[in-house]
Write a structure and sequence with these properties.
Radius of gyration of chain A: 19 Å
CATH class of chain A: Alpha Beta
Strand order of the largest sheet of chain A: 2-7-1-8-9
Shape of chain A: globular
CATH superfamily of chain A: P-loop containing nucleotide triphosphate hydrolases
Mean pLDDT of chain A: 93
CATH topology of chain A: Rossmann fold
Distance between the termini of chain A: 10 Å
Oligomer: homodimer
Structural class of chain A: alpha/beta
Helix content of chain A: 40-55%
Order of helices and strands of chain A: EHEEEHEEHEHEHHEHH
Largest sheet of chain A: 5 strands, parallel
Largest interface: A-B, 38 and 38 residues
Low-confidence stretches of chain A: none
Chain lengths: 210, 210
Amino acid sequence: MQLKREGIPYIISAPSGTGKSTVCKILLERLANLKISISHTTRAPRPTEAHGKDYYFVSEEEFKKKIEANAFLEWAKVHNEYYGTTRHSIEKIQNDGYDVIIEIDVQGAQTLRSMSFEGVYIFLLPPSLKELKNRLTKRSTETVEKIEQRMKVAKKEIAEYKNYFYVVTNFEVEDTVYKLSSIMQAEKQKMFRYVPTSPDLESIINPQDT
Amino acid sequence: MQLKREGIPYIISAPSGTGKSTVCKILLERLANLKISISHTTRAPRPTEAHGKDYYFVSEEEFKKKIEANAFLEWAKVHNEYYGTTRHSIEKIQNDGYDVIIEIDVQGAQTLRSMSFEGVYIFLLPPSLKELKNRLTKRSTETVEKIEQRMKVAKKEIAEYKNYFYVVTNFEVEDTVYKLSSIMQAEKQKMFRYVPTSPDLESIINPQDT
């Protein structure tokens, strides 16, 4: 009688430097029922990155074949490299009953939205632009020009926050992890996801089935 | 620039015996920003009950005056006694910036809904009818007939769960408190409740205001 629950997709976007990856990493460590979708890319792996863990690293030829086969939910070319999320990578996780984080930029989320991809759209924000610039400056070895470029992109992205269902300001990692965990728990309690927990309740809730 | 947030109303219903009061009591002890709306009633206080804490105990005459003055968001006559929630009791809490629990039966919640009262509608369920009957039998000194009557009402109420936004099964108190706290935190993160946390973000989000 009890149906296997299909995993919930969480589409998480944030301006670069907000701390999205750190927060998602902790969530994945703590929540047993949560996985992250792994993107495909044509860019070279960094020394710490592993195929099938951080990305699926593929050749441009392989990537283009997948585009032609309509394998991608969304893809983009950024700085001459391809990045994309395959339908398969998400559906596999969902069908196994896991919730799935889709870390994706504002443009990618817009693509998912435009194809009515059902999921929980969450936007992470820095406490301020000043703090975002601090974080970008501290963490990176990038030039001042590059940081200015990132700030310009960030401002455009932030203006899109209204297209998300939830907004979380990343003041501090643990606080943000708590808020995101709360969102994930609350989503499980949504009425339309309720499944009767006993036959006697089932007979009231779905009388035609019994 | 930062606006004072108006408190969120949580309308919580549950069949009698589900454990709603226990769970709400713990939430009120733990969440500093949460209060409960206090109803008016014409019934006599029980030995453990205090005026202004459990209920406002009023005469039938006073109650009827309030009905005429349109003071009640909703009211009902049950077993010859009046029960009602005044607009003032909720608005006062909200305006002070507190979130507010409105413990109310299915019929009362339906009244609030029919007048488009904006809030977060949550339904608590027992794990099973069998378990509900156990709880009613254990806790009460009521007759078998009275318990059967409560079970009959419970079945009707449970069939209304679809009118609520969230559904939480009360398997165990701490688990339910966790789920309700999560819902309350998640609601605060809803996009439409986002308030910019710095002037530089404000200038992006509400450019016309600056």
